Amino acid sequence: MAHSPFTELLQGDLKTLETNLRNVLGPHLLEKDHLSLLNLACGRGDETGVLAKLLSEKSSSAHLQGLDIRAAEIGQANSRWKKELAEKKASVDFITHRGDRLLDLAEIGTPDIAFLRHQNYWNDKPVWTRIFDQALERLHEDGLLVITSYFDKEHELATAALENLGAIQVGSIINPNSRALSDAPGKSVDKHLAVFKKK
Ligand SMILES: C[S@@+](CC[C@H](N)C(=O)[O-])C[C@H]1O[C@@H](n2cnc3c(N)ncnc32)[C@H](O)[C@@H]1O
User: Fold this and answer.
1) CA 135 to ligand 1 center in whole angstroms
2) How far apart are CA 13 and CA 17, in angstroms?
3) Residues contacting ligand 1 via CB (< 6 Å)
4) Which domains does the chain carry?
């Protein structure tokens, strides 16, 4: 099937994300019979295939749960990924819910990974502080929290907020090939990626 130039750009972004996750998250992600990942503020969850692949390499079964406040994007994520991953080891489920009300959701359990691509901390610090705090609380005791950021300053602020909540950074990378976006100066795709563990 022919791909549009935009689809090719997205695929390039995902390839780079996969490489950086392998390099930065990979060494900390231990093999387990089952691995679970919570993708917070996931939007359409474009990166779900990459995440499912990485988890499936380290486990016999994996479950990815995605969550966002935008119902339309969650609908797209469910219809795309439930179909695309139907024959794979990894199962997926996306729900419309607030990440800052995570503690209301018993079904989240204790994920091995909390993942936040293009976190939006500086847009609403109180809400995102609650999202980070509740993600850390939910996380398995040996779990890992991963963020990516579009902007340098935003990444710096989010890192400081997470460390203030007791998270310990165990790895990070600045993406030298991050694709610049024209809607804001200094904004580029997955420019920063950092991995944290719980204290
Ligand atoms: C910068 S976008 C990133 C989306 C996606 N992770 C990506 O990389 O394309 C931030 C996302 O946060 C979501 N969001 C904002 N506030 C939220 C909240 N309180 N709970 C859950 N999601 C939220 C938005 O709907 C949006 O999808």
Assistant:
1) 14
2) 6
3) 41-43, 68-70, 98-100, 117-118, 120, 127
4) 23-197 (3.40.50.150)
